[in-house]
Write a structure and sequence with these properties.
- The protein has 314 residues and is α+β, with helices and mostly antiparallel strands.
- It is built from ten helices and eight strands.
- The strands form two sheets. A five-stranded mixed sheet has the order 1-4-5-3-2, covered by helices on one side.
- The longest helix is centred in the last third of the chain and has 22 residues.
- The radius of gyration is 20 Å and the shape is globular.
- The protein starts with 13 loop residues before the first strand and ends with a helix.
């Protein structure tokens, strides 16, 4: 991977973490533990990659790409635990702007599965994969219904925020946006009900993290990275009638067609980021986490996705 200048690379830091003894986090398929790294008690979710995958570096890169495109993304850092490499994700469930002195105030959160189960009579929260009711229309209807019933303000901002997570999925090829991989925060303050999207999180199933270098070479020399991205299947359906979920990239393109105001906002974001900006993120991944070919393949994937989204908006 070529760099644009002769300056030394400043790699992302790798945070040392003691092997946890606490309770394991049960959601998802990976080993995960809550750990505390700072005196203020800030909680981080320590996540180990599955064998022979790049889930650790992919999660870090996706977080950085999200920040690059001004998406509200959970903070992720690279980590090392007794010789094992991993990631840590900072908890976003207790933010300073959600601490109130009013005794009647409170805050809480719903995973998408919990929220849809409450808002939609027919929704089955136990079907995680292949749940065709987990679709764009259902999510929009649920937010509108709950928002209107509780006089929640700024519903458009919530939908726009969730849409930006779809765009991030499209940029990095995240195929794991099932209903437990997004969250809404809500509460009451001074008698007012509020609700907003939590930061987007859990993007490890991205950027060709499951591929070997041999497979990456074959894709780059034959069908190309764009075809690889188009073949992926995301976790959000268009509607309940479609048997297959679209690729994350295709779903992001559809949002551009359906909402021109949203597309215009994304045109500006896409145009503000250069190839060099994207490559600089990959340059900062230490070699112990990802090979040069893995980083080059993933960088090409983001650049190709960005170009496709730009063409969709024109």
């Amino acid at each position: 991977m070529r760099r644009s200048s002769g300056d030394p690379i400043q790699f992302f830091p790798v945070i040392p973490v003691a092997m946890p003894r606490g309770e394991i986090e049960n959601r998802g398929a990976r080993r995960k533990f809550w750990v505390s790294l700072e005196d203020d008690g800030t909680q981080w979710l320590l996540k180990f990659p599955r064998s022979n995958t790049g889930e650790h570096w992919a999660e870090k890169v996706a977080s950085e790409i999200g920040r690059l495109f001004q998406i509200n993304t959970a903070r992720v850092e690279l980590a090392r635990v007794d010789g094992e490499i991993a990631t840590i994700c900072q908890s976003f469930l207790t933010d300073d702007d959600e601490v109130y002195n009013d005794a009647d105030s409170f805050t809480s959160h719903f995973h998408g599965s919990e929220f849809l189960d409450i808002a939609i009579d027919y929704y089955d929260p136990h079907i995680v994969r292949g749940n065709r009711d987990h679709n764009v229309k259902t999510v929009m209807d649920a937010i509108q219904t709950v928002g209107d019933a509780n006089a929640v303000h700024r519903l458009k901002e919530i939908l726009d925020e969730l849409a930006s997570y779809v765009f991030l999925d499209g940029l990095v090829g995240n195929t794991d946006r099932h209903h437990d991989n997004w969250m809404l925060k809500y509460g009451v303050a001074s008698g007012q009900v509020w609700m907003r999207a939590a930061p987007t999180f859990d993007h490890a199933s991205s950027l060709g993290r499951e591929l070997t270098d041999e497979r990456r070479e074959r894709i780059l020399s034959s069908s190309g990275v764009l075809n690889y991205l188009r073949r992926g299947r995301g976790g959000v359906y268009i509607d309940e009638k479609h048997r297959r979920a679209p690729s994350p990239l295709h779903l992001a393109q559809l949002l551009c067609r359906w909402n021109r105001e949203l597309a215009e906002d994304w045109r500006n974001r896409l145009n503000s980021i250069t190839h060099t900006d994207i490559q600089s993120v990959f340059d900062r991944i230490p070699s112990e986490f990802a090979s040069e070919l893995a980083k080059d393949f993933a960088c090409q994937a983001v650049v190709a996705s960005k170009a496709e989204l730009s063409r969709s908006i024109k």
